[in-house]
Records
---
Amino acid sequence: MIIRLQTEDFDAEREAQALDVKGAGARVSFVGTVRDTAQDRTITALEIEHYPEMTHAELSRIGASAQARHNLQEVLIIHRYGRLACHERIVLVTVWSAHRAEAFAGCQAIVDALKTRAPFWKKEISPEGALWVPGQTPQDLK
Amino acid sequence: MITVRCFAVVREILGCDTRSLVAATTPQRASDILAALAGARVADLPKPLLVAINCEHASLTSLVHDGDEVAFFPPVSGG
């Protein structure tokens, strides 16, 4: 499993091609990007804050859980932080498995868990000002 | 010594990023540490408020021991 937290951009295809995963018959990637609008406001940038020591640990737990549950052969998660302009890439999740169903399900499980468990916070910057994006709570803590 | 970390809007409201607290007695509930840190401003904090102890999700009723790091933050929005 590869987890990277970085401020710089990534090339999703190059990152995936760099890994030679033996036995994989399917590869599914998700790329999240910065929206240019939110509730009819124009968004010019997104500021992403995180809890560095916990983020890596939590992404590893999320990846390992999906790997075991969906029989994934490899997991790659790259998440950016800092100030990103609209349309910039935020996150890459790529998974490899023997068959497509496991790859689709595993990738979705990781992306869903990022939303509720990974300690990131986003502030939307618009001409009207800056607003924190409402977050979510881990399902098992509700 | 207990290390307290605050993130996002919690950091902004409390004006506190990282603080070391000497607890008279441990373990203490995370909610007690928050009360000592925030005082009356606890009412201004977002609800639900999330808690992590030693970089794992916990809750306000979780126990914090001497040497632990406890973090308070709003609901998360990764991805």
---
Amino acid sequence: MTQQTDNFNRIDDEVLASLGKWSPGYKIAVGVCALLVVVGIIAYSFQYRIGMGVTGLSVPISWATYITNFVFWIGIAHAGTLISAILFLFRTSWRNRINRAAEAMTVFAIMTAGLFPLIHLGRVWVFYWILPYFNWRHLWPNFKSPLVWDVIAVSTYFTISTLFFYLGLVPDLATARDRTQDGRRKKMYTILAMGWTGRYDQWRHYARAYLALAALVTPLVISVHSVVSWDFAMAVVRGWHTTIFAPYFVAGAIHSGLATVILLLIPLRKALNLERLFSRYAIEQMALLMIFTASIIGYAYCVEGFMSWYSADKFERQFNIFRAWGSWNYSPLFWAMITFNVVVPFTFFFKKLRTNLKYLFVACLLVQIGMWLERFVIIVVSLAHDYLPSTWAVYAPRTVEILVTGFSYGFFTGLFLVFVRLFPSVPMSEAKDDALPKEVEA
Amino acid sequence: MTEETPCVVARFEDYHAFVEALRALKESGVYRYEAYGPTNLDRIEDLMAKKGSGVRIWSTFGALVGLATFWLVCVLSALIYAIIVGGKPPISNIPYVIPAYEGTILLGGIAAFIAILAYARFGPRKPPAYYDPRFSGDSYGIAVLCKGKEKARVAEMLSGLGAVDTKEVEA
């Protein structure tokens, strides 16, 4: 046995041991997620049967919690692609242990996000009208509409992220296939590993395909959330109609996504005994990245305020004053959003705080709340306070909307918890690559 | 197309020895060989007979098809329902950039994936009998294609190059 063999075996042992039996605590966590999903499905069935009147939606607030959830989950998905594709192209070594978890998070977050436009549709059974399919009624979607762009962008993002995620998983599925003793799991890994043997010929094509997919998925990080932002920015609504929305949304998406990765990794590294592989260093690096994204978001908040003053547009000015000071219903949310999204991440400047995992966990939880509130403030407050004082309204989510929101958390977290017990959550081949002596090159 | 069955499969526990063995095999120029390993072997390209990959060409082709297809869908759908409003032409190329851009990425990515399925001969099947499961775990492997009577000599040569064990494969 050589040092290298020891290192490789240690990586395999640690990762494959995490696929073992479910502890009682783990089963309870999955059970809670399943409960949230079931309750959410019942709530949605009620909405499906009765109609959209069971929600708090009204005129003029016709977009609210569901669309907030859509933008929130799409945003979560972005950090996975940043970590797996962009940091891969930049050859950032700390991403090699955490990219699998981040990619899984991306795929599950898009799946969750994709449900919300459907849930928001009053007549979900005709959802396919937005797809460009040949038909005799000449019912073609309007390709000039950001809503149609959104369907295309999100479905492209889901497809490419899934392919990228699966391709990265193949070498590790082969390792799991070759090591597992469980008959059913072996069968599953054998099918999913698709005959992978680690032959040079396979690696040769794999490396190119992985690079090609990484290069293709990278512009999607920018484009998808830009397109989502244009759903709002193209409309002539105060608080929406601004050119800063695309970079502001992209930075926000990455910000919330990084917070989610940290939130997932901190308990998981303990639960799965992967503390060595999900290193504190990688978590710290993500916290540092969050300072960068918080700076962009903070800048965007300032620009919004500045432009409303500088434009001398009275509607813009009164709207910004209303958002910050004008309503007991909404103004606290606005200040909570600024505190959680900008002030809290700026505490990561202190090494003592960003390396304290308990503090980091709580801070990232606050960022998550802040990012959800940001979307809520953008969507709801802008619609609630438009040009005509006679149409001003107050929105509060109803029980159905709250339960369906709970469903999304249960669905996402449940999928992730099941995934990490069924499939290697650390890319073993990449971890082994890191463990190789660097001076040996062909 | 199926893989050729090698006559000797050698296992290496040290990456350095594995690379040196490949170098020796390449320099001898006598045998054809294949390498196996648990880490990305793309970096040993210089020691192998085959280089590069067609994946990128297929990916580029797919991307161009995606660009053209999505742009055409936008244009043709506008022409089917060609109502002129305010004197503006029905085709608006600037907004069509978004679907065309997404289509480029979508079909480019799908083409890259299909290309690797074809090139790497992926399929839901078991590995061949001579495959050592440790090649996906802690070891590297070299499989040499040779004639039956050369087996012993090849096995001895590979052992001399640092292989921890060698296996003669029955045809």
